[in-house]
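Case study 2.
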Amino acid sequence: MFKEMRRKAQQLSLQESEKILETASSGVLSLCADNGYPYGVPLSFAYSNGKIYFHCAPEGHKIDAIKSCSKASFCVISRDSVVSKEYTTYYKSVIVFGRISIIESKAEKKAAIRFLSDKYCPNEKNADEVIEAYSDKFVMLELSAEHITGKCAKELIKK
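Prediction:
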């Protein structure tokens, strides 16, 4: 269903790709939007076990696109070093393809919020109070990975 990477020697292992997803702070979510135009939006996120979690407003362009088509991709760049003398860039990136949905269950939503909060605000003592106070003001999204692929510059390949 998904195309194989053309330059297989540059393909990262699933473990390295997942490590990038676990540690990166932002990426670009791409959705099918109005009139067939793609819609890419940068977002913070949290990844675990084949699932990516995001938060967003309960209405707007992103929600409309998700309700119209659940197919999505998410791209993360973990390294992007321009090497001008070599006319190249040393990079590592990961793309996740899957289906995105709005988390409907209150318990699952709170667990996803907590997971996101723990990633970005791990030492905040009042996280539970903030989550309780604001959780009804936004929605949580879950992207279930169907295909994960990572790639690096050929100069970064471990020999």
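The two ends are 30 Å apart (CA to CA).
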